[in-house]
Prior knowledge:
mainly alpha, 72% helix, elongated, disordered C terminus
Amino acid sequence: MALDTRERVRRAAVKLFAAKGFHGTGIRDLAQESKLSTASLYHYMGSKEELLADIMRGCLRTLLDSATAQTTNVEDPAIRLSRLVKLHVRTHARLPRETRIVDHEIHVLAPATRRSVVALRDSYESLWADAVTDGVASGVFTTAHPGVTRLALLEMCNGVARWYSPRGSMSLDDLASHYADVALRAVGACPQRSPEGQSKGE
Length: 202
């Protein structure tokens, strides 16, 4: 029962933090959404900041673990970048609230807590940086500004969380593939030059 209640509190927090922001969400809001008393709420969540940080860490660990699994031992940087883009798009489409919280609320964390969250984010983004840098070094990519291009691609993919709807004209898989093509063009690689031999779920 306790685990179910903790999950209910977490889901309430995800909903409210994504909609109202961390500072815009009060303890009473969380208690009401969780169907708990304010006193009971603290038993399941600790502090509001701890709850926010746990949500961020969970989302980032999921991204990092999936990205590592999909890019480890893959030498072709174009394939690595394509897989990273598809994963990022799919995750932001499927978990729009969680990813929106990660993208917009890190600044509210206290420095000590923020460091652990930023470390996970940096580990994930380093996979992107390595793919782009390796692509430029090997001549597969021709972008003159790899760092800026990487940031632009991440921002482009982040936006999916704001507007994607499964009722749209494209399936999520088609959308992810289209974003991967756009990303490869942005770094100066022709999408056709890197057939992925995609496996289901990439």
